[in-house]
């Protein structure tokens, strides 16, 4: 019983001390400092925790697209019919909606490339039925090479198509070399019609390593020494022939 009375007196005394302190120095409610928060000022409600605003991570500026040379398919009008329907008379008289479906406007890339190849072949072929001459093969390879070049400008890491392009260039170079030796007038006409600049290959090309340079210098040195020995030998033979001739003249 005495313990309960002692606890009551202690609690009454502590509550009295707290009341006196609160009356002397009033306690301010909790406020958050918006200056410490990143971003704009935030209105804080007393007695509540303010959540800082989300930091905006702005995206980088868009890269400027590189403008390369114009495509070889840019000169094809979109109203032109596909190659499969160009010779069909019914496709010429149909309504506009069907013509649009059959035109190059909604055609795939392979259809446009096929039509471009036929245009290049028509420039250089010998007659209407010529499909296997050197000129026709050069024209088809030219259309394929230009298509690879346009593709590699956008996808420069495509090694497989780069290899195919180099193989096609090498094949076309061999055909042009053969055509230049056999029919020079046809060679000039093909280069002019297709816009090809023919460059002559070097007479001799090899990777000049240090070992190859030293070996070449040694071979040149040996060659000069051999030529010098042969010249001395020829001179000695001429002297011996001249001496035998003078001796024979004296003996007579």
Explained architecture:
By secondary structure, the protein is mainly α. The chain is built from 8 helices and no strands. The protein has helices at residues 2-24, 89-93, 96-102, 109-124, 134-154, 159-182, 184-194, 210-251. It is flat. Mean pLDDT is 81; it is low at 27-40.
Instruction: Based on Cα principal axes, name the global outline.
Output: flat
Compute the number of strand runs. Answer: 0
Q: How many helices does DSSP assign? A: 8
- Can you tell me the residue ranges where pLDDT is under 50 for at least 5 consecutive residues? 27-40
Largest sheet: none
Range of helix content: 55-70%
Helix/strand-derived class? mainly alpha
Gyration radius, to the nearest Å?
47 Å
Task: Report the average pLDDT across residues.
Answer: 81
Strand content: under 5%
Distance between the termini: 174 Å
GO molecular function: RNA binding; structural constituent of ribosome
Pfam family, one: Ribosomal_S15
Family: Belongs to the universal ribosomal protein uS15 family.
Coiled coil: 110-158
């Amino acid at each position: 019983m005495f313990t309960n009375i002692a606890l009551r007196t202690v609690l009454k005394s502590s509550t009295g001390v707290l009341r006196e302190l609160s009356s002397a120095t009033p306690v301010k409610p909790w406020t958050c400092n918006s200056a410490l928060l990143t971003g704009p000022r935030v209105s804080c409600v007393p007695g509540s925790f303010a959540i800082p605003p989300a930091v905006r991570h702005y995206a980088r500026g868009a890269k400027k697209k590189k403008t390369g040379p114009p495509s070889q398919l840019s000169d094809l009008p979109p109203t032109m019919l596909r190659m499969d329907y160009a010779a069909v008379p019914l496709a010429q008289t149909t309504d506009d909606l069907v013509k649009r479906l059959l035109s190059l406007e909604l055609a795939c890339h392979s259809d446009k490339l096929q039509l471009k190849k036929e245009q290049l072949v028509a420039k250089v072929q010998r007659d209407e039925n010529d499909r296997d001459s050197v000129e026709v093969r050069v024209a088809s390879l030219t259309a394929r090479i230009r298509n690879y070049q346009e593709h590699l400008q956008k996808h420069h890491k495509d090694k497989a198509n780069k290899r195919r392009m180099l193989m096609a260039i090498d094949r076309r170079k061999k055909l042009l070399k053969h055509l230049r030796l056999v029919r020079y007038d046809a060679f000039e006409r093909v280069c002019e019609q297709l816009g090809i600049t023919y460059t002559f290959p070097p007479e001799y090309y090899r990777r000049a390593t240090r070992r190859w340079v030293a070996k070449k210098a040694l071979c040149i040195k040996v060659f000069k020494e051999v030529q010098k020995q042969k010249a001395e030998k020829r001179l000695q033979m001429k002297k011996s022939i001249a001496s035998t001739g003078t001796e024979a003249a004296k003996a007579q």
